[in-house]
Amino acid sequence: MLDFLKKKNVRKDPKKLSREELIAQAQQNARKAREELGEENIRRLAEALQQMNSPAHQSEGKRAQEKIRQMDKGHIADNLKIILKEDK
How far apart are CA 70 and CA 62, in angstroms? Predict the structure, then answer.
């Protein structure tokens, strides 16, 4: 009748890893992934990521965003108001 007063079985983590064990496990996973991918593929991926972040290789959309960020906020607001009036 008063079962709700009894303590419930709470599952505990079977094994909590220490910080050092987690680091070792992460390093092992990274070594395994590096072996599977190969050094050449990893190098090409790293180069592609660097190019993506390079301002010289940005897309038109990214360049437009940067240009808008550098513009005067009042000028942007005025242009938006004009665009909204034209749509009506």
Answer: 13
Higher-confidence residue of 10 and 20: namely 20
Predicted TM-score (pTM) above 0.85: no
- What's the rounded Cα separation, in Å, for the pair 25 and 49? 26
b/e burial code for range 1-21 (CB count within 10 A of at least 16 → b): eeeeeeeeeeeeeeeeeeeee
pLDDT band at 14 (very low <50, low <70, confident <90, very high): low
- Average pLDDT value for residue range 13-42: 88
Q: Contact, 29 vs 37, CB < 8 A?
A: no
**Alpha carbon distance 27, 51 (integer Å):** 27
Rounded distance between C-alpha atoms, residue 20 and residue 8, angstroms:
33
Tokens 């938006």 -> residue: 80
